[in-house]
Amino acid sequence: MSEEDRYEVFVKRMEEKYPKMFANPYGGFAIGKGWWPIIESLCSNIQSHTDWWNKNRETRPVVEQVVVAQIKEKFGGLRFYYDGGDEQISGMVRMAEAWASHACEECGAPGTSGGKGWIRTLCPPHRAEADARYAERFKE
Questions:
Q1: How many domains does the chain have?
Q2: Which strand ranges, in their side-by-side order, compose the sheet holding 29-30?
Q3: Is the N end or the C end of the chain the one with fewer CB atoms within 10 Å?
């Protein structure tokens, strides 16, 4: 299966599993496959929290459904932009973004942020590959 096919399978799975979260146009997943498990875990926790809280809401306010606006990598970090939610969901998002800042965007292994050119969070083997591509492209 090609990388493009894997991406399409991932997108379809997320949209089918979390139709409320991906109800509006959101720009896709502009992240590497190493961060897909982080997004899957985050979406699962967000939807579980929202559904549970609203099911038992007689004595408390409703948690507005989270709707994803954009998911991307920026300056080596995960950015998860959304509407709705509450403080607990905000904490979940911050935790996922922190998790991603220590996980290789390509494979999910422990990684660090940096690099030549584009800043990304990568493990040592993927960092070496990215640096070699950069050196070849710009003939360092």
A1: 2
A2: 29-30, 64-74, 77-85
A3: N
Asked if 115 contacts 131 with a C-beta cutoff of 8 angstroms, the reply is yes
Provide the 3-class DSSP secondary structure of residue 62.
Answer: coil
Q: Are residues 76 and 112 in the same domain?
A: no
Whether 122 contacts 100, CB under 8 Å: no
Looking at the structure, do residues 81 and 35 belong to the same domain, yes or no? yes
Give the list of residues 6+ apart from residue 78 with CB closer than 8 angstroms, or none. Answer: 31, 35, 38, 71, 72, 96, 97, 100, 101
Q: What is the span of the domain harbouring residue 52?
A: 3-101
What is the b/e burial string over 80-117, where b = at least 16 CB atoms within 10 angstroms of the residue's CB? bebeebbeebeebbeebeebbeebbbbbbeebeeebee
Residues 139 and 115 grouped into a single domain: yes
Whole-model pTM? Answer: 0.91
Q: Do residues 93 and 117 both lie within one domain?
A: no
- Tens of pLDDT, residue by residue over 83-132, are 999 999 999 999 999 999 999 999 999 999 998 878 999 999 999 999 99
